[in-house]
């Protein structure tokens, strides 16, 4: 019996939800486990870096890496995985576009450190202890990875072959991806493994969206009782659906919450947030500056709204002055 | 060239995108434009620079690219060298894009493989440092050369021209254009805001310099309009809405209620006599409020159409509903209908001529002349009515106290050539002041003084008219009047208006006491000119006059195809010029109609049907209503004939599912990339910064 294809999973700056989504395959995981050898999966099995280093280069068929790249250690692991894997798949929003962790790119690293280790109300740190890159402990030299200045997407660090979007990806997408890998019929490099159209296409409220939404006021979900039979945009709730890739089958909307954009843009869009802003703002009913400002006041956190999952991959803060 | 430069001039990143029409073989041509470009840009250097750029097969410079030999140069290269892309660095695309596209097309190349770089308006004319101007010309050149890599062959669409014409404004310009077009057998809708056509000219008594009776030459034309089988004349009406594009405009016209049925009324005016107001008591607008009218009235005896109308602001029945309605009783044609409501007409036309005219300057805004303060200070338009046989005094020139003036001062340039009012010369005031001087002298025998800054009489027979006036004993004082006052310093000034002026020819300050002052008010754009230009999507100058496409080469065209302008709305002009422009606009319209169809630029947007999610974000944004939502497919659809290529929907489509010809992402990004290479910036993703 020939060797089964080898598959790996790895995590970087992530919450663990992507790992959960693998387990969410439920009984399908047996199918996956039958079809492949999982040779590397730190969250579930004990692997050391040296185990990976010992593998032959290119010996893993595919590794799914979730999480953004924040530290020097994640960088090194990403490069190691790249060497050992034929195919690297950025798995989930963080690896794909930076995800929630990349919202940190709004602030300089120093400011984040100051807050986390001193400024935050819940921190008691009278000695002003800070993480050090290396420290002598019992005559041992202990080192910590370095926190980089910016959070990056996986493809800003290594070459990435495919992307599975979502925060987290749905089990269906993962299963489809594994089936594609096993079939050997690989799509063109760089493909995002989800339908290349906007979410509205899959949304049950599509028909209820009026032709002229004409926003008079924006509401955040907690401010209104959302009518679960109507397009959220028509109710003044910002739904990222029109600017977000389909594939999740509008799960959030089925749960009566607006789409927050975790699947990222379609292949034809370079900057999801800018596109949504452009579309939304063109449809504001007020025509004078004062009126427009009043409507826009309903969006207190534009970056968090339009770039919630994609700040690292967006056009914003492409150049950041070195602050340390 | 250094290594660095080689890197900067690298081939555009095609990213595997298909390049049409085979491997790009680009011909680059840079124009000297005589000295226009060559004096400020090192043309040979640009030529040499381009010759080393990737994809460039031939690079040449030439004195005048737009000349026949210049164009032949391109055509010869296309045929002999097999060029499949052409870039010309010369003047503005507005001027010669069409020229070069046609040249390329004649040589068998699809014209949309051509791209133009503007190194005249954007470079040589606006920079004074030859070195940096040359560098900028090179950067723009590199951008264009990178852009044409991604150009595609496009086909022009042809749309038919609806032969019906809309003319807005029934003054002499509108009337002339309407008759010219209607006489050619085409249907004209003439829309006039006032209750009668005729415009300003209908208010005049005589016209300069021939002293023709204005009414005698105008009213036959007004009647001709009314009775012309090919003219639909809608007075007391305004255009409310305009949609569409050249050849196919949809227009909504609001017909304001006259409260009189236009079809039934024959203009006998018995209703006016029967009105319960025995005396007229409301200011008559047509007579510049120098006389009174009743709530039911007709603007002037030759008004066209000869139909009375009600003023609901003053009619008792509209205010209290308690009038005896004697007017209705007396009308045996039962034409009066006090319940009339506005009527909205929808029409389809192919072309539009705007002849919306001008307004005169509000003399009260120049308080030094005393208008509104001294009853015997008049505007020129008021004098036109006073001197008119059908005016408020039946042609007698008398002051408001009924006394015939023995001396009259005409002050030129009121509101014109004045830093505090309008800077422009209103062009007609000198001549109409001379005309009024002549008429006043003829009617009253008074001493007439003209106070002028410069006497401007260019025009056929105009200077001769001025000469004639000087022999008639009219006085001319050169100098800007500083003040009109009733404060008498000497007994001769008692009970008179004294004009204080520096006579610059004799170098003294003079005080000239007169019985009547005439202010030669200038011409300015109508108050709502800006609303009109927005409705018809045309531009206007800083002053508010409608803007022609080119002051010399396209004086009656606008930047919107199929919309033409003529007469006072385009700038101050006299009757001969207005009529000439109206004729020119009519010719433009007839030429379009005669061609039967027009080619549309293919720079239109289209929906990528496979990718459109049907989110409808684009639909309300289209200024041309070109996008609709198809219920069956649940996707958006763009009508190419309606699309003007503005790009709004392309930018707004949140899933990037709309593309626009000639503005593909790859074309734009490649162009930007070429432009930014001077700064060493590459558009490709750069690695994030490391700490």
Notes on the structure:
The complex is a heterodimer of chains A (324) and B (691). Chain A has 324 residues and is an alpha/beta fold. Chain A has three domains: 6-100 and 149-183, NADH:ubiquinone oxidoreductase-like, 20kDa subunit (Rossmann fold); 114-147, no CATH class; 199-306, no CATH class. Helices cover 28% and strands 14% of the residues of chain A. Chain A has eleven helices and nine strands. Chain A has helices at residues 17-23, 28-35, 49-54, 72-84, 92-97, 109-119, 171-183, 251-254, 272-282, 289-296, 302-306; strands at 6-11, 37-40, 60-66, 69-71, 85-91, 134-137, 140-143, 147-152, 162-164. In chain A, the strands form three sheets. Chain A has a five-stranded parallel beta sheet, sandwiched between helices. Chain A is globular. The mean pLDDT of chain A is 91. With 691 residues, chain B is α/β, with parallel strands linked by helices. Chain B folds into five domains: 3-154, Rossmann fold, CATH 3.40.50; 157-256 and 342-357 and 526-600, FAD/NAD(P)-binding domain; 270-330, no CATH class; 361-524, 3-Layer(bba) Sandwich (FAD/NAD(P)-binding domain), CATH 3.50.50.60; 605-661, 2-Layer Sandwich (Alpha-Beta Plaits), CATH 3.30.70. Chain B is built from 18 helices and 34 strands.
Summarize the structure.
Helices cover 28% and strands 14% of the residues of chain A.
* Gap between N and C termini of chain A: 56 Å
What's the β-strand tally of chain A? 9
User: Given the C-alpha coordinates, what overall shape of chain A results?
Assistant: globular
Lateral arrangement of strands in the main beta sheet of chain A: 2-1-3-5-9
The ordered string of helix (H) and strand (E) elements of chain A is EHHEHEEHEHHEEEEHHHHH
Q: Into which percent range does the helicity of residues of chain A fall?
A: 25-40%
């Amino acid at each position: 019996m020939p060797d089964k294809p080898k598959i790996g999973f790895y995590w970087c700056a992530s919450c663990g939800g992507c790992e959960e989504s693998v387990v969410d395959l439920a009984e399908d995981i047996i199918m996956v486990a039958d079809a492949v050898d999982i040779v590397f999966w730190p969250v579930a099995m004990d692997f050391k870096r040296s185990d990976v280093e010992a593998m032959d280069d290119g010996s893993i068929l595919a590794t799914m890496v979730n999480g953004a790249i924040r530290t020097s250690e994640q960088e090194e692991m990403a490069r190691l995985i790249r060497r050992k894997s034929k195919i690297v798949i950025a798995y989930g929003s963080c690896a794909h576009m930076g995800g929630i962790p990349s919202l940190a790119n709004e602030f300089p690293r120093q400011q984040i450190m100051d807050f986390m280790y001193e400024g935050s109300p819940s921190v008691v740190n009278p000695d002003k202890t800070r993480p050090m890159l290396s420290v002598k402990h019992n005559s041992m030299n202990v080192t910590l990875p370095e926190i980089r200045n910016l959070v990056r997407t996986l493809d800003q660090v290594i070459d990435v072959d495919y992307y599975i979007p979502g925060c987290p990806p749905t089990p269906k997408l993962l299963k489809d991806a594994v089936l594609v890998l096993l079939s050997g019929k690989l799509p063109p490099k760089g493909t995002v493994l989800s339908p290349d159209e906007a979410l509205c296409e899959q949304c049950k409220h599509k028909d209820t969206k009026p032709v002229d939404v004409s926003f008079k006021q924006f509401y955040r979900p907690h401010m209104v009782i959302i009518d679960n039979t109507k397009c959220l945009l028509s109710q003044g709730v910002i739904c990222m659906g029109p600017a977000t890739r389909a594939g999740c089958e509008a799960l959030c909307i089925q749960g009566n919450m607006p789409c927050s954009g975790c699947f990222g843009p379609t292949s034809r869009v370079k900057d999801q947030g800018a596109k949504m802003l452009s579309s939304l703002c063109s449809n504001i009913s007020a025509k004078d500056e004062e009126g427009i400002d009043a409507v826009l006041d309903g969006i207190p956190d534009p970056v968090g709204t339009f770039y919630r999952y994609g700040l690292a991959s967006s056009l914003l803060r492409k150049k950041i002055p070195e602050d340390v | 060239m250094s290594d660095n430069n080689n890197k900067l001039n690298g081939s555009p990143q095609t990213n595997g995108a298909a390049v049409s029409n085979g491997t790009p073989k680009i011909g680059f041509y840079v124009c000297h434009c005589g000295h226009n470009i060559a004096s400020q840009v090192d043309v040979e250097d640009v030529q040499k620079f381009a010759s080393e750029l990737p994809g460039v097969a031939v690079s040449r410079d030439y004195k005048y690219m737009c000349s026949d030999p210049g164009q032949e140069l391109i055509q010869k290269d296309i045929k002999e060298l097999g060029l499949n892309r052409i870039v010309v660095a010369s003047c503005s695309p507005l001027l010669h894009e069409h020229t070069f596209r046609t040249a390329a097309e004649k040589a068998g190349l699809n014209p949309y493989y051509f791209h133009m770089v503007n190194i005249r308006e954007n470079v040589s004319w606006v920079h004074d440092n030859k070195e940096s101007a040359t560098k900028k010309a090179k950067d723009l050149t590199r951008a264009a050369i990178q852009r044409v890599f991604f150009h595609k062959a496009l086909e022009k669409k042809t749309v038919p021209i609806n032969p019906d014409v809309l003319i807005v404004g029934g003054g002499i310009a509108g009337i002339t254009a309407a008759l010219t077009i209607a006489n050619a057998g085409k249907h004209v809708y003439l829309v006039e805001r006032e209750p009668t056509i005729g415009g300003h000219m209908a208010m005049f008594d005589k016209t300069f310099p021939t002293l023709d009776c204005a009414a005698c030459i105008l009213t036959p034309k007004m009647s001709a309009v009314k009775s012309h089988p090919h003219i639909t004349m809608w007075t007391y009406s305004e255009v409310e809405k305009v949609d569409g594009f050249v050849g196919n405009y949809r227009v909504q016209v609001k017909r304001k209620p006259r409260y009189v049925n236009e079809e039934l009324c024959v203009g006998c005016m018995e209703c006016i006599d029967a009105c319960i107001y025995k005396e007229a008591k409301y200011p008559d607008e047509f007579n510049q409020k120098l006389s009174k009218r009743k709530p039911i009235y007709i603007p002037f005896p030759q008004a066209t159409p000869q139909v009375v109308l009600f003023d609901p602001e003053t009619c008792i029945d509209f205010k209290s509903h308690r009038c005896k309605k004697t007017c209705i009783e007396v009308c045996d044609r039962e034409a009066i209908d006090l319940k009339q409501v506005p009527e909205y007409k929808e029409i389809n036309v192919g072309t539009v001529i705007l002849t919306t005219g001008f307004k005169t300057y509000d003399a009260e805004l120049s308080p030094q002349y005393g208008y509104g303060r001294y009853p015997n200070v008049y505007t020129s338009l008021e004098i036109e009515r006073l001197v008119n046989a059908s005016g408020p005094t039946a042609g007698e020139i008398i002051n408001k106290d009924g006394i015939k003036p023995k001396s009259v001062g005409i002050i030129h340039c009121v509101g014109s050539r004045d830093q505090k009012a309008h800077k422009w010369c209103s062009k007609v005031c000198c001549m109409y002041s001379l005309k009024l001087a002549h008429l006043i002298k003829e009617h009253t025998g008074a001493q007439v003084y003209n106070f002028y800054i410069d006497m401007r009489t260019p025009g056929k027979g105009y200077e001769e008219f001025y000469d004639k006036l000087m022999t008639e004993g009219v006085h001319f004082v050169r100098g800007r009047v500083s003040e009109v006052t009733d404060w008498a310093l000497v007994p001769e000034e008692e009970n008179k208006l004294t004009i204080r002026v520096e006579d610059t020819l004799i170098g003294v300050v003079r005080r000239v006491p007169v019985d009547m002052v005439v202010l030669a008010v200038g011409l300015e754009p109508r108050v709502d000119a800006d609303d009109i230009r927005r409705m018809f999507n045309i531009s206007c100058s800083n002053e508010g006059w409608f803007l022609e496409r080119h002051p010399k080469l396209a004086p009656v065209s606008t930047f919107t195809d199929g919309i033409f302008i003529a007469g006072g709305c385009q700038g101050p002009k006299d009757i001969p010029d207005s009529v000439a422009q109206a004729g020119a606009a009519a010719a433009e319209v007839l030429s379009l109609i005669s061609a039967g169809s027009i080619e549309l630029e293919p720079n239109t947007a289209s929906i990528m049907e496979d990718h459109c999610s049907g989110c409808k974000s684009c639909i309300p944004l289209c200024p041309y209503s070109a996008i609709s939502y198809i219920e069956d497919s649940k996707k958006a659809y763009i009508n190419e004939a309606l699309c003007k290529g503005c790009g709004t929907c392309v930018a707004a489509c949140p899933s990037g599912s709309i593309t626009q010809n000639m503005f593909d992402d790859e074309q734009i990004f490649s162009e930007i990339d070429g432009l930014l290479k001077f700064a060493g910036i590459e558009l490709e993703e750069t690695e994030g910064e490391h700490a």
